[in-house]
Amino acid sequence: MSTQSILLKDKxxxxxxxxxxxxxxxxxxxxxxxxxxxxxxxxxEAMYYSKMGSFICTKNCxxxxxxxxxxxxxxxxxxKKTKEKSIYDLIKMIPQxxxxxxxxxxxxxxxxxxxx
Length: 116
Description:
By secondary structure, the chain is mainly α. It has helices at residues 3-7, 11-35, 43-55, 62-72, 87-93, 101-108.
């Protein structure tokens, strides 16, 4: 093994390092929670190692599959489709009591359905 290959760090090396840090944080949490020994784990650090471990995973890579599906457009959804109303339907909805234009407009316009 040459000196250069020892200095190179690959995905597997980082995955082992992240796994080791996750287990260390789990031990810290367990010891502090149940025995009140030592300090509690740093949740931001634990979250970092957890996310980085899932990003660099060597087997079952959910993130890589998600990115691939996103690029291929498999995750796109049409969303909630609103039923378009014809002008005839809108005219029928206007109250015939002679209210103001604002009242008539507010009675037929549903602001939740408006596409912005």
